[in-house]
Amino acid sequence: MKWLKNFWRTFNRPSVHFSLGFLALGGFIAGIIFWGGFNTALEMTNTEEFCVGCHEMRDNVFEELQPTIHYSNRSGVRATCPDCHVPHEWSNKIARKMAASKEVWGKIFGTIATRDKFLEKRRHLAENEWARLKANDSLECRNCHNFDSMDFTLQGKRAAAMHSTALASGEKTCIDCHKGIAHHLPDMKGVKGW
Amino acid sequence: MKQKTFIGFTLTMAIAFFSTVMTQVNADPINPILKAEIDEEVTAPEIAKPIKNDIKQARNYPMQPPLVPHNIRGYEINLNVNKCMACHNRTRTEESQAPMISVTHYMDRDGNFLAEISPRRYFCNQCHVPQTDAKPVVKNEFVDMEKMVIKAEKEEE
What we know:
Distance between the termini of chain B: 72 Å
Binding site for heme 4 (chain A): 174, 177-178
Largest interface: A-B, 16 and 19 residues
Oligomer: heterodimer
Binding site for heme 2 (chain A): 81, 84-85, 183
Number of helices of chain B: 4
Subcellular location (chain A): Cell membrane
GO molecular function (chain A): electron transfer activity; heme binding; metal ion binding
CATH architecture of the largest domain in chain B: Orthogonal Bundle
Cofactor (chain A): heme
Radius of gyration of chain A: 23 Å
Structural class of chain B: mainly alpha
């Protein structure tokens, strides 16, 4: 306990060697560096390479994404993992990253280390994503798919019928109707609409 | 001398015979669909586009499973889910405005009606297929039953 008291005394004493201006400026610069580093680290984890760096994602969801329209299509626009799974707005992004720390925990302890374990957990994982997208009105989908820019006359009959009614009125959002757009679905027993 | 003429004659005949055979082989290539010989390199035909115009096609006979008139890209049918049933199930048709699977889909092979889709009708694509705009490589000589009936009636008159 003694060393702690000593440390606190030193820490608490006003500086003798450095001017207040130096300290303030130094703190400011260090702040920028840490802040920048933090955001850079954040951006680095915000890429598809990072997401599929662990085999749990590469062998399951990434594999399943590849034959879908969001991986390859006529226009060449791609949706990557963070496009659909990480909010753009900073505070939401931090919240999602905090939740993701729990997923890293899962990685370390091998919660979904095998295909079987992953499939067992899949319904639970999917439900989390559905709940998130339902709560934010499918914000990540809408970052790319703008409702106001949809031309119903160019859509298929089934698509136009649904988009001009249930979607336009706000009664439903993208994820209500488009589950399983990027990956295989879990057992859907009891899910509304299936 | 006579023997020599005979050999000469047979040889000429043989050559004539084989050359006709050879030309016939050329006229009828080994691959009648691509119309090419095995040692020939051909450019692959263009990939046909799916027809997804949402227009129901006429059925060629009453028991024909109707063709799928819409896109089915990425629709999962497996142990966990049946995407088709999310629209075509009895309880889903009000929302989806899709035609309900007919009553035969709820029957087992003994004719009993089940509460849910019969397992033998679970894999829709076994019977219902979408079409592409590909040109048929073999001519279709199918004649509709109705035309045959009309023809038979005319002949009776």
